[in-house]
What does this fold into?
Amino acid sequence: MIRASLKTLRAALAEKKISSVELARLFLDRIARLNPELNAFITVDEDKTLAAARTADARIGAGEAGALTGIPIAQKDIFCAKGWRTTCGSRMLENFIAPYDATVVTKLEQDAGMVSLGKVNMDEFAMGSSNETSYFGAVNNPWDKTRVPGGSSGGSAAAVAAGLAPVATGTDTGGSIRQPAALCGLTGIKPTYGTVSRYGMIAFASSLDQGGVIGRSAEDCALVLSAMAGFDEKDSTSLERPPENYSRCLDEPLAGLRIGLPQEFFKEGCAADVMSAIEAAIAEYKNLGAEIVAVSLPNAHLSVPAYYVIAPAEASSNLSRFDGVRYGYRAPEYADLTEMYEKSRAQGFGAEVKRRILIGTYVLSHGYYDAYYLQAQRIRRLIADDFTAAFQQCDVILGPTSPTTAFRQGEKAADPVQMYLSDIYTIAVNLAGLPGLSLSCGFDHQGLPVGLQLIGNYFAEARLLATAHAYQQATDWHLRRPALAA
It folds into this structure.
């Protein structure tokens, strides 16, 4: 059951081979045993989990079960869940108990009947590419515990890779689902901006943030994404579209699919081992009947500087609400209101969050708004236009997810720019609002997973998942497990 697909788990529950309570206990016991080595979970509440599992068993017994009823899931600690501690990986929210459910939590747990195993670790306020900025400590990669799992959804990826959960939610602002999926040998999808509700998802950069899924396979991700996506009137950026079944194209052949290779993704800067695995995957896609075409994204190299103006600017605005007045951390000693603000924010935020707030406040300040923020938004439009042009020549764009495999903890901590460049292949997708997916396509010489990125046109999630699924049916990279998860 630890290694089983969601479809297998669903069948086992339906046939009464195992109960939801037994399944939840299986994962809770594994969390208790392995989480001290990984630090993937911040909060586990066995009573809440088992109560939800009993409710799921009752639904199954009454014939009211859906495709996901009774299946365990780990929730990234950026999603509010009523009665659960919701920290966003920060001291600022260390003791915050959410008074309501995020729409994602409502859809997956109340509507679909999934069972929450707890809240998983993340970079503080989703700001990071390594899961080293969490107030609750770094997360260790199950493939090599001296290395990072990627970020910001590092706890989600580590939990699934280690078999602490069969699937997990994540969020992606500049690669925070796809990069951890790549570094942990998993499948992760960020859908089109506006597809998944942001209500109850603690905001980092509102025009970039999007919820998604990290799982072992495209098939598993398709099942969960189908349940969590959909219009939400509580989110002003939510798109009003008919409900979709993202599994609908999984068994379609790839014959005639045009896969675009952007020349900008295949230049210097990518590790040789990573590029070898990507080239082998391209050859496999050719064998499956796909047509490979050359495309160009001429402004892709501007995505990192544009992102690190826009995202901090929005973070500066969003995080101004954490002032020690209404909720969250408040400094224990202060002389007046101004000092309370200053000390609460200085003590409550970590170094990376402070850095981004300062950058964001600067680029929004009088005299610099036009020079930085407005220019970054213009570049964002150019990047989106590049993708529009590319998709006139191809159906799916392929490239690396990350320029390297998992790096050692502390390796990039002293150089923020090097850390930011970890997301060089993923950020443009968020700036354009497109769907992106990462899947495992091999290993480097150190035995660390390599991630392959697939990018689709707007609302092409089903096609992306089918493209990944076809590859996974022909290869076994997604079935490999770290020794820890045996």
In short: Residues 369-390 form the longest helix (22 residues). The mean pLDDT is 97. DSSP finds 15 helices and eleven strands in the chain. The two ends are 12 Å apart (CA to CA).
